[in-house]
């Protein structure tokens, strides 16, 4: 009687290697596509693809953050409206906010949309101190800052207040936002 010989698994090994190769290729494609999508959706041009965002973009264009400054610096929407902590926090907030914006854009009637009420209500919810602090690091040493501003920033830096940047600086990024929203939406009704 011949000794028992176990079946070889060369076919199984080739299948595993093929699956691993496909997995690596798909992972690379997803990572590269994700990076491209993050960059593509980080622009004001993308943000105004939602019709209701137009007056907010127009008000931003006239502000210092929209390029109306001596250096010509332009912050993008995501520079202020997404947290700048770790990558997972950033991407998660981006996905949740973007999904919410898409859903709202599908269900709101732009002719009856009260953009300013929405803006005031959500300003603190969608403006992150980590975003402000990413660019504005020298809060207590800005040239020409009045004494009151210096004292308020010092209190903030020491953690002696719970106020957020957007509470004291509500109209810094969107110049004349209330007028812009009123003009935009009154045009839409006509």
Q: What features would you describe in this structure?
A:
With 190 residues, this protein is mostly helical. The protein has one domain. Helix content is 59%, strand content 0%. It has helices at residues 10-40, 44-47, 54-61, 77-81, 87-107, 115-122, 129-135, 147-157, 165-168, 177-189. The longest helix has 31 residues, at 10-40. The radius of gyration is 25 Å and the shape is elongated. The protein starts with 9 loop residues before the first helix and ends with a helix.
Proportion of helical residues? 55-70%
Shape: elongated
The helix/strand class is mainly alpha
Number of domains: 1
User: What is the alpha-carbon Rg in Å?
Assistant: 25 Å
Distance between the termini: 97 Å
Helix and strand sequence: HHHHHHHHHH
What about the largest sheet?
none
Low-pLDDT parts are: none
Number of strands: 0
What is the fold's blueprint, element by element?
Blueprint: H1 10-40, H2 44-47, H3 54-61, H4 77-81, H5 87-107, H6 115-122, H7 129-135, H8 147-157, H9 165-168, H10 177-189
What's the quick description here?
By secondary structure, this protein is an all-alpha fold. The chain has one domain.
Please name the defining characteristics of this protein:
single chain; mainly alpha; 10 helices; elongated
């Amino acid at each position: 009687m011949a000794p028992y010989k176990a079946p070889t698994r060369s076919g199984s090994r080739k299948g595993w290697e093929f699956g691993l190769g496909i997995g690596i290729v798909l992972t690379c494609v997803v990572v590269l596509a994700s990076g491209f999508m993050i960059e593509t959706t980080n622009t004001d041009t993308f943000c105004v693809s939602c019709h209701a965002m137009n007056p907010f973009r127009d008000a931003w264009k006239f502000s210092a953050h929209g390029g109306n400054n001596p250096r010509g610096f332009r912050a993008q929407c995501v520079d202020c409206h997404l947290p700048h902590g770790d990558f997972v926090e950033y991407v998660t907030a981006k996905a949740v906010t973007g999904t919410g914006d898409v859903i709202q854009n599908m269900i709101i009637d732009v002719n009856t949309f009260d953009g300013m009420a929405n803006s005031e209500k959500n300003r603190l919810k969608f403006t992150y101190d980590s975003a402000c602090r990413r660019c504005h690091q020298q809060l207590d040493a800005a040239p020409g800052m009045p004494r009151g501003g210096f004292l308020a920033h010092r209190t903030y830096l020491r953690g002696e207040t719970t106020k957020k940047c957007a509470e004291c600086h509500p109209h810094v990024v969107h110049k004349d936002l209330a007028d812009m929203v009123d003009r935009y939406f009154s045009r839409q009704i006509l």
